[in-house]
Amino acid sequence: xxxxxxxxxxxxxxxxxxxxxxxxxxxxxxxxxxxxxxxxxxxxxxxxxxxxxxxxxxxxxxxxxxxxxxxxxxxxxxxxxxxxxxxxxxxxxxxxxxxxxxxxxxxxxxxxxxxxxxxxxxxxxxxxxxxxxxxxxxx
Length: 139
Ligand SMILES: Cc1cc2nc3c(=O)[nH]c(=O)nc-3n(C[C@H](O)[C@H](O)[C@H](O)COP(=O)(O)O)c2cc1C
Fold this sequence. Notes:
With 139 residues, this protein is an alpha+beta fold.
């Protein structure tokens, strides 16, 4: 049996002029800090926004999210979806990074726009599947 986890997706606005070096520095921190917290996920960036999935034990994920929210490399963090889960989507991935494709940016914008309504489970699941298949396709 797997221990129950939570999965959180948030979107934020990247700070002006944020470059690849800044994203690499974030990934370096994540690679160091996430494994001991049992956090896995994916960080998608492009078009001036970040979308990040954090999954793992509830306390670790929420504490990390609160810490990340305060990071000046982005602002206006908003949770788009949060759910309990019995298994990870990003098993073994301390934090992958993906440059968002235009279609994904559109998908992210759509979820963002409907954030104040109930995001249908299918909309969330289908975005997760897109991210997941892209990670599988990485060399
Ligand atoms: C968009 C974004 C995503 C981040 N994701 C993570 C993450 O998954 N794990 C993490 O430890 N830090 C993440 N950070 C960085 C944290 O805000 C913080 O700078 C870092 O954890 C500090 O740890 P360090 O001093 O050990 O590098 C993220 C920052 C930003 C802007």
